[in-house]
Write a structure and sequence with these properties.
This protein is 35% helix and 24% strand. It is an alpha/beta fold and 354 residues long. It binds S-adenosyl-L-homocysteine.
């Protein structure tokens, strides 16, 4: 039984239907019953497994990519190394280990983590002991300095609104109550100024999603990178423009209906990389490049071969499977994309140019 359901029902009775974004926000971040507030969702025993939890190679490659950006930008003496939604801290731990091979980087770096979950902050603290991380609720409190930022499977967890095209207007998809059951509904069609450009590339009946918090965060990252230098690598599932309903709920590694167990399943939507790239201006965007292509360009196969020399038996088989899972187009290689942000004065992060 979902502890959040009675609260949602009471709110819908009192205030009427809510947007998909409000539903996502309550399910994921409710202070007592939110999905991220109440658990560590990652890993085999959890609900989903992310790339850094599959293999150390993922964090190593991303870390070295940021290291190369720092070298390309003349090795600024002070930098903010930041991650959005660091999960268990695995990606950052692997990146930091690889960055020991870039002389001077770690001496210049201060580690800053943006994380809403107290559970995961505790996991990050134990994993990243010695790196003295500072935690934040958002980006605003980060020091103003060259910013080298990672975000893996963070943006998909931010709340989206959904709009169905109806003539020159849009009907918003909302959640209401019918006989105490949560049900989807649609508002009347109204014009939406921010969706004006989408009238050119959609038809009647098409659904588009918009993630305002993702655009606001990327705008802030872009401002900092344009002003102080740095680079960002944003990795997630999604495409160059939003089209169609991508809202999904996942529990125990299986999809469940979006309205079935509020607060007890992960809720995500695909990332609109085109919208993020535009929001990042005046910083420059490169990509989004498929994850498999990006990792191959940066030498994941050579790294995999080097690690394989020390393995045999089941450990070797699982290492080979992990490499395939991260890179193969039928696994995470094509659906997941990497978007890079960099200042106009510097080259794009390696692996992201066509
Ligand atoms: N990057 C990690 C974890 C991905 S899960 C990995 O790849 O394994 C999403 C992460 O983002 C979790 O750490 C979650 O607690 C955090 N998160 C989700 N929404 C957030 C928000 N609005 N503000 C800050 N952190 C958030």
């Amino acid at each position: 039984m979902s502890a959040l359901l009675p609260l949602l029902q009471a709110r819908l009775r009192a205030e009427g239907p809510m947007t998909v974004a409000e539903y996502m926000m309550l399910c994921l971040q409710h202070p007592q019953h939110g999905y991220y507030t109440t658990r560590d969702p990652l890993g085999v025993a959890g609900d989903f497994t992310t790339a850094p939890e599959i293999s150390q190679m993922f964090g190593e490659v991303l870390g070295l990519c940021l290291g190369q950006c720092w070298l390309d930008q003349g090795r600024p003496a002070r930098l903010v190394l930041a991650e959005l939604g660091p999960g268990r801290g695995t990606l950052m731990a692997d990146a930091l280990r690889a960055l020991r091979g870039v002389p001077g980087f770690l001496d210049a770096a201060e580690l800053h983590l943006v994380e809403s979950s107290q559970h995961l902050r505790a996991a990050q603290a134990s994993r990243l002991q010695g790196a003295a991380p500072v935690w934040h609720d958002g980006l605003d409190t980060l020091p103003e300095a060259p910013l080298y930022l990672l975000a893996n499977e963070f943006f998909d967890a931010l709340p989206v609104r959904q709009f169905l095209r109806d003539g020159a207007g849009w009907r918003e998809r909302v959640i209401g109550l019918r006989e105490d059951q949560l049900v989807f509904g649609l508002t009347e069609a109204t014009p939406q100024a921010v969706l004006e450009p989408r009238l050119a590339d959609t038809q009647d009946g098409d659904l588009v999603e918009r993630c305002a918090p993702a655009e606001a965060l990327t705008g802030e990252i872009g401002r900092r990178i344009a002003e102080h230098g740095g680079a960002a690598l944003i990795v997630d599932y999604g495409s160059d423009r939003s089209l169609g309903d991508t809202l999904q709920a996942v529990r125990a590694h299986a999809k469940v209906p979006v309205l079935a167990v509020p607060g007890q399943a992960d809720l995500t939507a695909h990332v609109d990389f085109g919208a993020l790239a535009r929001a990042a201006a005046p910083a420059c965007a490169s990509g989004a490049v498929p994850q498999g292509v990006f990792l191959e360009r940066l030498g994941i196969t050579q790294r995999a071969q080097a690690l394989a020399r020390r393995l045999d038996g089941a450990a070797l088989q699982s290492h080979i499977a992990a490499h395939r899972r991260l890179t193969h187009p039928d696994e995470m290689g094509r659906l997941f994309k990497v978007l890079g942000l960099h200042p106009r004065s510097a080259p794009p992060p390696p692996g992201l140019t066509e």
